[in-house]
Structures are given as structure tokens and as C-alpha cells.
Amino acid sequence: MDSNSNSVMDILEVIPGKKRSTTGGWYSFNAICCEHRGHRPDKKSRGGLHLIDGGWVYSCFNCQFKCGIQPGKQFSSNTKKLLSWCGMEHMQIERLSFKNFSNRDLDEIDEDLRPIIVMFDERKLPVDSQPLSAEDPRHQIHIDYLASRGLSSTSYQYYVTPDADSQRERDRLIIPYFYNGKIVGYTSRFYTSPGPKYLSEQQRGYVFNTDGQHDNWKVCILVEGQFDAISIGGCAYMSNTISDEQVRVIRKLRRDIIVVPDRDKPGMEICDRALELGYKVSIPNWAPEIKDTNDAVKTYGRLATLLSILESATTSKIIVEMKRKQFK
Model's pTM, two decimal places? Predict the structure, then answer.
């Protein structure tokens, strides 16, 4: 495809192999998406392309991959994937996407350019909460707990309640949830029983530590737990999946996302959702006893852990499936 053209007919030149014209404006060929999505290469012409309304639609009748373009619209992540699988360079794809977008109706507002408005209600921390301080001897239990996780009292803005009525409430570390500088929830980590170790006040769609991301960072490391996020300077989805509401929050960061799953069978389930969203997935070759990102930072140090995450990041479903097999 010539970078000076965005004719819909060019897609037929980009897709490799023989193509056969069928009825209804469709072209059939061996689908190129299958082997990139963990399936066997297609040899039965199950890929289809339909030219319609100044654009085109691609559909695979084997792995069900779909994408396309419409005049005046930016390319979707799936469209960009297809073009890259056809051998196109990233910058060429981005130029074509912009040119296609520049031909839009000026009265039409593209969804990708609309301001992403995300709001959370401000919340209060538990009564008598006070910032954690290494200078207060009453806070030593919390300093020791953080040290056991390879963290310091200054690794995050923690709170404690040493004047609470019950011993259980005195023996808890509070992790506030910040959004645009305001506290919108929190998690309490309790050390004593009976009762659960964690109790959270969390609003729907919240992603932990977005306030901790710097404007000049190009990548966001997305992990499951708060301590994992604090350890690596990343964000946490704090669940067994990434919700649609959280996707909107993550989009506001406008940077590449690398998901690092917890290293067990339940934790690895996030891989499918991450790849579906177009995020990279990283499963580094850490020692068997390493269970999550916090463990890795504690064992290898923050810089070495970060480098291993970046080196292992991929959007290849085949590579991800091969690596996650060891945790099943």
C-alpha cells in the first residue's frame, strides 16, 4: 500500500496470496490472522474481505477475527493488527489512519477525540486516620510489614489508625485511593485475626495509582494488586478482570499498556482480556517461587524487574499461551 494513498482497493494488494472474487462483493483467501492468534495457519480460504461504502470489512470464518475501515474514522486496534500482519510498518499504518481520519465530515466528532470524562466521588478515610511516619514508635508494626514486602514508609502515602478502639483496627495499614489528587476510596490491610486480611472501599471503574503515573512516561505497567503496583510504579486493576469502566480510565493515560499477571492459574486468566483490549502481556522468566510483581521487585530489585517486564512484553497470543502453560 502506498503511503500517499488510502484507496480501499489497496487492501487487496496488501493481503498476501491468491484472492478469489465471490458474489456480493466479497473476496476470499487464506486468512492471515489465524496463526497470529494461536490457531493453525488457514489453508482453506476462510478469510473474507467485503468492499462497502468507501471502506472495507475483513472477517475470518476460522478464528472469528474481524476489523475494517470507514471513511473519516481512525483505524481500530484490530485493523492496525491486520495491516501489521500483512507486513506494513507501524508509522505507515499511523499515517494512513490519520489520512483516513482527515477525510471525515467536519460536523462529525470522532469518538477517539472526545474528552474522556471520568469522575469518582470523594470519600473519607476511617476515623482517626493519620499519615504513616517512621518517627512514631506506634507505627513500627506497619514499618516492619512494609519492609517484609521490600517497601519503605515513603513508597506510598499510607495511613494508619493507632488510636482506634480495637486492636484489629490499630493493626491495619490503610492504602488510600487517589484520583486527581482527591481520596476516592481505600484498602485496609489487617494483620490480626479473626476477619479478612483486606477490606476495601472501592468505586466502580477505579484503577489504582493513575495519579502516580508521570506525564513523560511512555508505558504503564498494569498489575493485579496494590502492592505490586506500588513496587513497580504501575497501576492495578484489583480484580480478576479489567472492566469496561476501567478501560476508560486507562485510556486517559494515553500510553502503551503492559499487563503483568499474577503467576498462578487464576492470575493468568487476565491474559485473554488484555490481548482482547490490544494491551501487551508480559510473563518474564522469573524463578518459580516468584508469585507476583512485588515478589520480583523484592528479589531482583525494581530496575531489573522493570527491564525483564519490558523485554518479555508481547501481543502474540501464541507466545503468551506457551508461557502461561507452566502455571496451569
Answer: 0.67
For residue range 136-185, list pLDDT tens digits in order. 999 999 999 999 999 999 999 999 999 999 999 999 999 999 999 999 99
- In CATH, which of 3.40.50.300, 3.40.1360.10, 3.90.550.10, 3.90.78.10 is domain 208-328? 3.40.1360.10
| Contacts with 113 (C-beta within 8 Å, 6 or more apart), sequence order | none
Report the distance separating Cα 133 and Cα 140, nearest Å: 9
Cα–Cα distance measured from residue 255 to residue 218, given in angstroms and rounded to the nearest whole number:
5
Say which CATH topology domain 119-203 has.
Answer: DNA primase DNAg catalytic core, N-terminal domain (3.90.980)
Residues 6+ apart with CB under 8 A from 298: 149, 150, 231
Q: For the residues of 94-161, what is the DSSP string, one character each?
A: HHHHHHHHHTS-TTPPPGGGS---------PPPTT-EE--TT-GGGHHHHHHHHHTT--TTSS--EE-
